[in-house]
Amino acid sequence: MPTFAQQVADLRGYLLKYARLQLRNETWAEDAVSEVMLAALAKPQAFARRSQLKTWLVGILKHKVVDALRLQGREIASAGLAADETEDPLEHIVFQADGHFAELPADWGNPEQEIQQRQFFDILEACTQHLPAAQARLFLMREWLELDSEEICKTLDLTPTNLYVQLHRARGRLRECLDLNWYGKASAA
Amino acid sequence: MKLLRRSCKQVAALLLAREDRDLPWADRCALRLHLLACDACPRFERQLLHMRNAMRQWRNYTTAEDAESTD
User: Fold this and answer.
1) What are A49-81's pLDDT values in tens digits?
2) Domain positions in chain A
3) pLDDT-based confidence at A11, cuts 50/70/90?
4) Cβ B9–A100 below 8 Å, yes or no?
5) Within 13 Å, how many C-alpha atoms sit on residue A141's CB side?
6) Which of A29, A92, A149, B38 is deepest in the core (most CB within 10 A)?
7) Domains of chain B: which residue ranges?
8) How confident is the model at residue A88 (pLDDT cuts 50, 70, 90)?
9) In CATH, what number does A4-71 get?
10) CATH topology for the A83-188 domain
């Protein structure tokens, strides 16, 4: 039976994967995960086995990631989040000049269906990984850290308009990526 | 009625915006009218619903014990 410290250490790679996905900076991700490990090892009694170890550690990681985003907020806001008035080039692919869809959006099936295949999550993570770093951070702050818009704007010193533009683009790109790499392939099979 | 008329591109933008904030009354009306009369936009709306559910399930997956523990 591995010791508590060994079990925590075994999950380091897993935690690092999500820290990297959210923070998009190797140093910040390493620091956040190191702090999770230290916090867990300093107070093992806090893990009362009410949940799985992984669930508990991911919960701590989310707090550490928010701390890192707050700490680096100024740097994040100045890198790629300046007000951008230009249109997303993706829109020229999805829509015709008259505002109609270039192609009828594909039928992705029943949206209420539970996802059974782990590969879907691999594709989802890969699509998120391919988003521009600034968009990915904001999108995951909303969707993974579950922060509300006001909190994100406060953390990164962003205007709501700027946040909504970036989230709009992130969702649009993610939709396109999933359509190409998952749903499109499923309907072609 | 003309005020409520929107293109598919504008409606898609409203549907995306709706994921993150409440829409003004006029936009909600325009959206509802357009979705009743359009073939393409309801499909886009369902795709966004798919994504919303997928993100919820992914959040759960990241803490699930059977998720991959190594890179």
Assistant:
1) 557 788 899 999 998 999 999 888 867 776 665
2) 4-71, 83-188
3) very high
4) yes
5) 31
6) A29
7) 2-62
8) confident
9) 1.10.1740
10) Arc Repressor Mutant, subunit A (1.10.10)
